[in-house]
Write a structure and sequence with these properties.
692 residues; Serine Threonine Protein Phosphatase 5, Tetratricopeptide repeat; Butyryl-CoA Dehydrogenase, subunit A, domain 3; 20 helices; 2% strand; cytoplasm; ALIX_V_dom; coiled coil; BRO1_dom
Length: 692
């Protein structure tokens, strides 16, 4: 696009600090930071110093030096207190992410990657039970929102820099992917209950953005097709972009004027592209327009990432003010153990992600949705759009009768006009024939002077009316054909609902077909069970690693025994790893069973698809008949008005034709009598002798 309209971004409120027995001046400067990048720097320094303090003094949950730490929970406004210095760290880290989100939503469009990094570190390194606003669900939602907004900023820059269309399309598709993840979290009932009132506003904005950036992605896929001179593909991509933008516009009700302006601007761009592409293809290129689902889907390009947080980076934290309190050996050993845990997690996650990628690709290729694999329930009900039309006709019982009567009146007037014009034409033809006879009788063309005027004008006007009648006759025929096409459907919609339901196609499945369906759904349920178990085991592993703190043991362990201690401590993860290995190993058998079931399902799937297509076609046809009613009535009335006017003119012309023809006949008689008087009487001739 020539210019880049901007969508508003979501930013998070900062938590408010309460009680914490720490130096008052330090505490105040750390929790009342300015809303700028200097404030981010202050929070990072404070976070680092808290980390140094926690590594030396037992201020964690249940430890000897623990003191109450109080912060306000964002969504409820309630004060939440824990005797745990890690709670103070977690809240500061949350505020770091929130402040970055606030700065990212400003005009410069930066900082979302930093916000995502802060929330990721908080999710992966701290307990989720401190408060609702730091639960796993909320933090995952925040991460996807921030990554989506960071990718959105990158998209804006890419369009301003006129990057290649395919790259822009992939960047936009990734925006959609991040927002879809965020939307799934927002639709989760547990997350919705945690968020409270803001859930609805966030969900509406994110849903609208999903469709909007999907439209942007397909706009640029259409531009790429244009560059490659694939004019059929160009049309379908621009059509898809237009459809998705229309969905975004529907979801944008209640959004601020800046959003409406962005949507209007984008509509001008996409609408213009589509109209131009369709016109060019219709009149110049004539390329077949493929179905959208036959084209390769746009795979997102994740070009942003959560920037990592390192609370002990001296370039950020400054000098360690607690360096003299605890031997650094214990802290170093703890860091080494944390790295061992991180290595274990990376190894396990690499296996999980590899299997998940195979599973996702396999399921995408199958195109099987457990919720809609048979769609049988839809055939038990009349769809709402059809119920709406039936209800509308139930309060207008005279719909069909009014249409028929209107068309009958139109036919009557049409017939009257046709009869009048035929009579005029017959009169003119008869007059012409009489003129011809007179010429033959006289042997010459009769003299013009004295001939009655008006016939030429009548003939000319008759030709004009006949031409109008002929053109209108075609329209009238088409109108009757349209009425006959829709009349039966209107009668059906106005009748009992049982008849409407009976008119809709329904699948007829054998017992074998039903068994095939049940088997497929059972295996799909197994796939989902395998997914859920895998996610649960992964979450258990992450939580176990987060809670695994052996600092106390490290303080009392000799350096030479550290490696042995690490090995012993890491054994606690063996059982979870076994469960995960079993889960991953089961995938091959599950997918094989699904492949076999899908082969058997192919015929059933085809039959169901055909019935669904017929069902949709029938519904669309019935809806079209309802929507055609007002147009038919309008055109019928226009036809009646036209022919009523033409009937009046034809009647007057008929009277003129009769008068002109009578005058013409009288004129011919006068000429004939005059010519007869000019001729001498015939000579007498001798009679012929009779034949012998």
């Amino acid at each position: 696009m020539e210019a880049v309209p901007r969508m508003p971004m979501i930013w998070l409120d900062l938590k408010e600090a309460g009680e914490f027995a720490f130096n008052a001046a330090v505490k105040k400067s750390a929790v009342s930071v300015p809303r700028d990048f200097e404030g981010c720097s202050t929070l990072r320094k404070y976070l680092g110093q808290l980390h140094f303090l926690q590594s030396r003094i037992p201020m964690g949950n249940g430890q000897d030096a623990a003191v109450p730490v109080t912060w306000t929970e964002i969504f409820s406004g309630k004060a939440v207190t824990h005797e745990d210095i890690k709670y103070e760290q977690a809240c500061v880290l949350y505020n770091l992410g929130a402040l970055h989100s606030m700065l990212g939503a400003m005009d410069k469009r930066v900082s979302e990657e930093c916000a995502a990094g802060a929330f990721t570190y908080l999710r992966d390194h701290f307990p989720h039970s401190y408060s609702v606003d730091m639960s796993h669900q909320i933090l995952s939602l925040n991460i996807n929102l921030m990554l989506g907004q960071a990718q959105e900023c990158l998209l804006e820059k890419s369009m301003l820099d006129n990057r290649k269309s395919f790259l822009v399309a992939r960047i936009s598709a990734q925006v959609v992917d991040y927002y879809k993840e965020a939307c799934r979290a927002l639709e989760n009932s547990e997350t919705a209950s945690l968020l409270g009132k803001i859930q609805k506003d966030w969900k509406k904005l994110v849903q609208m953005k999903i469709y909007y950036f999907a439209a942007v992605a397909h706009l640029h896929m259409g531009k790429q097709a244009e560059e490659q001179q694939k004019f059929g593909e160009r049309v379908i991509y621009f059509q898809s972009a237009l459809d998705k933008l229309n969905e975004a516009i529907k979801l944008a009700k209640g959004q601020p004027e800046t959003v409406q302006e962005a949507l209007r601007f984008t509509m001008d761009v996409i609408g213009g592209k589509y109209n131009s592409a369709k016109k060019d293809n219709d009149f110049i290129y004539h390329e077949a327009v493929p179905a959208l689902d036959t084209l390769q889907s746009v795979k997102g390009a994740p070009l942003v990432k959560a920037l990592p947080v390192n609370p002990t980076d001296p370039a950020v934290t400054g000098p360690d003010i607690f360096a003299k309190l605890v031997p650094m050996a214990a802290h170093e050993a703890s860091s080494l153990y944390s790295e061992e845990k991180a290595k274990l997690l990376r190894d396990v996650m690499a296996k999980i992600e590899a299997k998940n990628e195979v599973l996702d690709q396999f399921m995408d290729s199958m195109q099987l949705d457990p919720e809609t694999v048979d769609n049988l329930d839809m055939y038990n009900h009349i769809p709402p759009v059809l119920m709406e039309k039936c209800a509308a006709l139930s309060v207008r019982p005279d719909t069909v009768r009014n249409l028929v009567q209107s068309m009958q009146v139109l036919s009557g007037v049409f017939t009257d006009v046709e009869a009048s014009l035929k009579e005029i034409r017959d009169l003119l033809e008869e007059d012409e024939a009489q003129e011809q006879k007179l010429q033959e009788l006289l042997g010459r063309v009769p003299p013009a002077p004295g001939s009655p005027p008006g016939l030429a004008e009548v003939s000319k006007e008759c030709s004009k009316y006949l031409e109008l009648h002929e053109k209108a006759s075609f329209t009238n025929t088409e109108l009757h054909r349209a009425m006959n096409l829709h009349l039966g459907n209107l009668r059906l919609l106005g009748g009992p609902l049982e008849q409407v339901r009976a008119a809709l196609p329904t699948p007829s499945l054998s017992e074998d077909d039903k068994q095939v369906l049940q088997n497929l759904k059972r295996i799909l349920a197994k796939v989902q069970e395998m997914r859920d178990q895998r996610m649960s085991l992964e979450q258990q592993l992450r939580e176990m690693i987060q809670k695994d703190d052996i600092t106390t043991s490290l303080v009392t362990t000799d350096r030479s025994e550290m490696k042995k201690l690490f090995e012993e401590q890491l054994k606690k993860y063996d059982q979870l790893k076994v469960y995960l290995e079993q889960n991953l190993a089961a995938q091959e058998n599950v997918l094989k069973a699904l492949t076999d079931a899908n082969v058997k399902y192919a015929a059933v799937r085809k039959a169901l698809a055909e019935v669904e297509h017929k069902w949709n076609t029938t519904v669309q046809t019935l809806v079209a008949s309802y929507e055609a009613y007002e147009d038919l009535m309008k055109k019928s009335q226009e036809g009646k008005d036209f022919y009523t006017d033409l009937e009046g003119k034809a009647a007057k012309l008929l009277e003129r034709a009769r008068a002109a023809c009578q005058a013409s006949e009288a004129h011919r008689q006068q000429l004939l009598e005059r010519e007869m008087k000019k001729q001498p009487p015939p000579r007498p001739t001798a009679p012929k002798p009779p034949l012998q």
